[in-house]
Amino acid sequence: MPPLVALLIRVVGSTLRYRNVNAPGTPNGDTLPGPTIFAFWHCALLTCAHRFRDMDIAILISRSFDGELIARTVEFLGFHAVRGSSSRGGASGLRGMQEAYVQGHRCAFTADGPMGPARVAKAGPVQLAELTGATWIGAYHAEPDRAWRLRSWDSFTIPKPFATVTFGWPAYVKPELELVQKALDEAVAMTSR
Predict the structure, then answer these.
(1) What angle do CA 113, 190, 23 make, to 5 degrees?
(2) Greatest C-alpha distance within the chain
(3) pLDDT value at position 88?
(4) What is the reported pTM?
(5) CA 148, chain centre distance (Å)
(6) Which of 86, 99, 113, 190 shows its CA 20 to 30 Å from the CA of 61?
């Protein structure tokens, strides 16, 4: 199933148009070389999986059954899946992300994953920054103008074909949980501009 889902993401994703709204002086995170740390909301995972495919980005994914399917799918899309989450295998997952950072990867966290609450940031990105000595964390959000929203804890978003997806890129912040939360909230607000 993961190869088919990855193919479907590539096909539907090829019809999407991307628009960026950036804070002054803030580049898109995917234009920066690694190692870096970024956080985004779980609901935008599908859109981000297409936009950032084939960039060897390390992403922390739950050890659950659903997480296994997601990990296999994103690996077909050119991501580096690191297994663990706040609810299962957190310490080993964080160590895996630390190794990925040291190896020069861009590291991405679904800040409210894997089970929420929705749009409440957890400490993973901040903990990774503390372990690695990173001095800043980036945040972003992706919002399609046309999408299906699942009745899940995060209102998981599936962009409709030919949608325009706006990415909000707020200023990068110091590695403090409150600042990461504010940056993620700002990223959401930027997508409606």
Answers:
(1) 105
(2) 42
(3) 60
(4) 0.93
(5) 19
(6) 190
